[in-house]
Design brief:
By secondary structure, this protein is mainly β. The strands form two sheets. Strands 2, 4, 5, 6, 9, 10 and 11 form a seven-stranded mixed beta sheet that branches. It has a four-stranded antiparallel beta sheet with strand order 1-3-8-7, with no helix packed on it.
Length: 120
């Protein structure tokens, strides 16, 4: 069983910062691709940032220059540093990870989500 647990969401004023964390735990060989998605009320879930193991980060255009994704592979943890937050960043943020369970068996997992609310 693999679990992704997010933390760090909350309420912040526009222009402020938050740092989200997501830890993968359970029985697996390794965590490959990790990323953050978000879903605002009435909208589809969208990719915010992704970071493959040993690869380069990808960002949604709307967050480039403001958000930074990073990971600590030894701790199976991915972070999302969010600066210069805007009201339109308000959403539930979800962690996503592709986990190598055993040889050639990769499965995607989602966290439970953490609410980020940016007030104007």
């Amino acid at each position: 069983q693999v679990q992704l647990v997010e933390s760090g969401g909350g309420l912040v004023q526009a222009g402020g910062s938050l740092r989200l964390s997501c830890v993968a735990s359970g029985s697996f060989f390794s965590v490959n691709h990790m990323g953050w998605y978000r879903q605002a009320p009435g909208k589809q879930r969208e990719l915010v940032a992704s970071l493959p193991s040993g690869g380069s980060a990808n960002y949604a255009d709307s967050v480039k220059g403001r958000f930074t994704i990073s990971r600590d592979s030894a701790k199976n943890t991915v972070y999302l540093q969010m600066n210069s937050l805007k009201p339109e960043d308000t959403a539930v943020y979800y962690c996503n990870a592709n986990v190598l369970l055993r040889i050639q068996i990769i499965q995607a997992y989602w966290g439970q989500g953490t609410q980020v609310t940016v007030s104007s």
